[in-house]
Amino acid sequence: MGQVRKFDDIAEALAPLRSEGKKIVFTNGCFDLLHVGHVRYLQEARSLGDVLVVGVNSDASVKRLKGPTRPVQVENDRAEILAALGCVDFSVIFTEDTPENLIKKVKPDILVKGGDWKIEQIVGGTFVTSYGGQVMSLQFIDGKSTTKLIEKAQQN
Q1: Rounded to 5 degrees, what angle do the CA atoms 71, 73, 74 make?
Q2: pLDDT digits (tens, 9 = 90+) for 79-126
Q3: Cross-strand pairs, 3
Q4: Domain spanning 3-155: which superfamily?
Q5: What local confidence, expressed as pLDDT, does residue 35 receive?
Q6: N or C: which end of the chain has fewer CB within 10 A?
Q7: Where are the alpha helices (DSSP H) in the chain?
Q8: DSSP 3-state assignment of 102?
Q9: Do 26 and 100 meet the contact criterion of CB atoms below 8 Å apart?
Q10: Long-range contacts of 143-151 (CB under 8 A, 24+ apart)
């Protein structure tokens, strides 16, 4: 089982893994209602390296990005659920609207987002490529989204 780490502690937690030569992969998102699209995406992200770090938008940032009725689940619950997945090594809550500062702390070997993001749009991509890291856009699982789940639940 993975760990929920604080923003200020993640670099320290990754240091021994990095010194062992482990390849660190980073992704981020709201992960409000976990669904199969999330799970497949996180499994694929993890398969690209040895350690998967997932940045989790804070409740305040989700509200700013998704609207006043979101998130459905509080940030600590979302971070704990993600950390419980076998493919996630660390989850970290960040308070800004983008994970730029967290990416600078993590300094991943590989930065990934879902296929709905073009590589040039991925926040932190310029930073990661500046030291030789990779930026990737993974396959998008069509028809699977938190918004669609919420809409379906409201119709029922």
Answers
A1: 90
A2: 999 999 999 999 999 999 999 999 999 999 999 998 777 899 999 999
A3: 90
A4: HUPs (3.40.50.620)
A5: 85
A6: C
A7: 10-19, 36-47, 59-66, 75-84, 100-106, 125-130, 146-155
A8: helix
A9: no
A10: 144/35, 144/36, 144/37, 144/38, 145/35, 145/37, 146/30, 146/32, 146/33, 146/35, 146/72, 149/33, 149/35, 150/33, 150/72
- Residue 34: both structure tokens together: 């976990």
Residue spans per domain, the chain = 3-155
Distance, CA of 121 to CA of 88 (rounded, Å): 24
Please give the structure tokens belonging to residue 150: 């919420």
Residue 94 contacts residue 57 (beta carbons within 8 Å): yes
Q: Residue 53, exposed/middle/buried by CB under 10 A (0-12, 13-18, 19+)? A: buried
Look up the pTM and report it: 0.91
Q: What is the Cα–Cα distance from 41 to 64, expressed in whole angstroms?
A: 24
Beta pairing partners, 135: 111
Structural Rg of the chain based on CA atoms? 15
Task: Report the alpha-carbon distance of residue 75 to residue 4 in Å, rounded.
Answer: 11
Pairwise CA distance, residues 77 & 88, whole Å: 15
- Cα separation, 151 vs 149, in Å, equals 5
Q: How are strands ordered across the β-sheet holding 51-57?
A: 3-5, 90-94, 51-57, 24-29, 110-114, 134-138
